[in-house]
Specification:
This protein is of the alpha+beta class. The chain is built from seven helices and 21 strands. The protein has a six-stranded antiparallel β-sheet with strand order 11-12-13-16-17-21, with no helix packed on it.
Length: 358
């Protein structure tokens, strides 16, 4: 409830504003702020963003590069109600976790459907594994919050992320980006646009990104968790075959040889490796690991084993240094394996657009 005094103050402020405008008289100059028109395809057609009756956020490719966020996980750092990051799954695979308005899917395995759909130039990427790609030569990213099943189909109960790459243009042009930083960070991006005729053009892009790891793997020789070693390329071709028919083709390839991300014990253990609920209590996940997957259940179900045996989930994993880890990766038989990652992702897209009279 508003008091009378607050209302009177508000009324006085309005009266003062009106009086000020009256004093300006006929010579008043009013400033107008122009708002750039933002065109989106959130509803499978080109529309002004102000006319789209849905919750949509738009990020341009240039703005993402300016703030130094070249990967798709940058979306979660900018767009409200979106959680998007490279996951440190139990297997160590760098698959992203995507949540929108609380709806998402944290498991990367091939039989799990995502709750947030990711589309690259209209093509649905049906699994989380492989979705942690670089935003290379991107025109814009549209983030649609809320269920999008009507226009985008299944697996969009949380929302949809629509990534649109830059199209070939009828003008020759090149671009080059080189960046260096801490921990051996090196980044290289190059693109070239070539017109072939008045009705066709092509575009090619290449990128490479490297960075040293940030957590030393103490159980491996000269090995750091969390490094980056990614490269890839994309080619595009567009042709206006007739006055009504347009042909667009694109192909992309990327290779990810990065090591798995570094992790720290948080389920049952503090930073110093001391059990939160008493010695020998590693939590629900830890108990399951020690009894089933450790390969040495006799030792791993004891407090002494969890404190000394690296095959066990327990305090031995934490060397009291947040930038080092005793963690090891094992196969289903419990054998320690070299945690190398080899992710090869490729795809193609052919779009035929025909303009009808209707």
């Amino acid at each position: 409830m508003f008091s009378g005094n607050k209302f009177n103050i508000y009324k006085s402020a309005v009266a003062t504003g009106v009086a000020s405008l009256m004093l300006l008289g006929s010579g008043a100059v009013y400033a107008q702020t122009a708002i750039d028109e933002i065109l989106v395809t959130a509803r499978k057609r080109v529309e002004n963003m102000q006319d789209v009756p849905t919750s949509v956020s738009v990020l341009t490719g240039d703005s993402l590069l300016e703030i130094g966020m070249p990967t798709v996980e940058a979306i979660g750092k900018i767009v409200p109600n979106v959680h998007f990051e490279a996951a440190n799954a139990t297997s160590g695979i760098r698959a992203p976790q995507v949540f929108m308005r609380g709806m998402g899917q944290s498991d990367f395995i091939i039989v799990e459907d995502p709750a947030v759909g990711i589309y690259l130039d209209g093509v649905f990427t049906g699994r989380m594994l492989g979705n942690n790609f670089d935003l290379v030569d991107i025109e814009r990213v549209e983030v649609l919050r809320g269920p999008q099943g009507t226009l985008f189909g299944r697996n969009t109960v949380g929302g949809a992320v629509n990534i649109i790459s830059k199209k070939p243009e009828q003008e020759f042009g090149t671009s080059l980006r080189v960046a260096v930083g801490e921990d051996g960070h090196q980044e290289f991006r190059a693109s070239v646009n070539v017109p072939f005729s008045d009705t066709s053009a092509g575009r090619a892009t290449f990128f490479k990104r490297e960075r040293d790891g940030y957590i030393k793997g103490l159980q491996y020789a000269d090995y750091d968790f969390g490094d980056e070693n990614i490269w890839g390329a994309r080619v595009q071709f567009t042709s206006k075959a007739t006055d009504r028919l347009t042909i667009d083709f694109s192909a992309d390839f990327s290779q990810d040889d990065s090591h798995p991300s570094g992790g720290s014990i948080v389920n049952g253990f503090n930073w110093n490796g001391v059990a939160q609920s008493g010695a020998g209590n590693p939590g629900t996940f830890g108990n399951f690991w020690n009894a089933v997957y450790s390969g040495n259940a006799a030792a791993c179900t004891t407090a002494a084993g969890q404190a000394s045996n690296t095959a066990c989930y327990g305090a031995v994993w934490d060397p009291n240094d947040r930038y080092a880890s005793n963690a090891v990766l094992v196969d289903q038989a419990g054998n320690v394996i070299q945690p190398d990652q080899d992710g090869t992702i490729w795809g193609g897209n052919l779009t035929l657009t025909y303009d009808m009279d209707s």
